[in-house]
Amino acid sequence: MHGSREYEETVALRDDVLRRPLGLIFSPEDLSAEVDDFHLTCYDDEGNLLGCLVLTIEGEQRVRMRQVAVRPDLQRSGIGTSLIQYSEGFALAHGFTQMTTHARHRAIPFYLRLGYVPYGEPFEEVTIPHRKLRKELMKD
């Protein structure tokens, strides 16, 4: 996916939703660092990108979910929840048993509802407060 039209769409969405509001932009180094990551997307029937996220391998059984973005006009519609639930199944299917994330402070209640548990101390990342969260992934 890296370098494809779909990838460029996800970069634009992540930039619009996550970076630009903080006065940040993706550097070429940022983007080249994610070439080996899993890029998961949600499209509608007309081929419009609705949301995306990135999974970065952190260890043999652990993957970190990051850069979760949903189109602003579709936030709070269930797309983020569906995308994360799909990513958990995807991670399990690829042999991962734990998902972690660095959640922005305002997003923590969302992740708690999905079964994520905070650990460690709050910290600052990309100029704003974050908290580490994790979830043990189990097959149904």
Describe this structure in words.
- By secondary structure, the chain is α+β, with helices and mostly antiparallel strands.
- The protein is built from four helices and six strands, in the order ααβββαβαββ.
- It has a single domain, classed as 3-Layer(aba) Sandwich (Aminopeptidase).
- A six-stranded mixed β-sheet has the order 1-2-3-4-6-5, with helices on both faces.
Question: What's the CATH topology label?
Answer: Aminopeptidase
Question: What gap, in angstroms, lies between the N and C termini?
Answer: 29 Å
Give the structural class: alpha+beta
Biggest sheet layout? 6 strands, mixed
Number of strands: 6
Overall domain count = 1
Which residues form runs of ≥5 with pLDDT under 50? none
Rg value? 15 Å
CATH architecture assignment name? 3-Layer(aba) Sandwich
Instruction: Let me know the average pLDDT.
Output: 95
The helix count comes to: 4
Q: What is the chains' assembly state?
A: single chain
Report strand order across the widest sheet: 1-2-3-4-6-5
CATH class: Alpha Beta
CATH homologous superfamily (4th level) name = Gcn5-related N-acetyltransferase (GNAT)
Strand content: 35-45%
Topology:
Blueprint: H1 5-19, H2 28-32, E1 38-43, E2 49-57, E3 62-70, H3 79-93, E4 98-104, H4 108-113, E5 117-125, E6 128-136
Parallel strand pairs: 3-4
Antiparallel strand pairs: 1-2, 2-3, 4-6, 5-6
Summarize the structure.
The chain has 140 residues and is an alpha+beta fold. It has helices at residues 5-19, 28-32, 79-93, 108-113; strands spanning 38-43, 49-57, 62-70, 98-104, 117-125, 128-136.
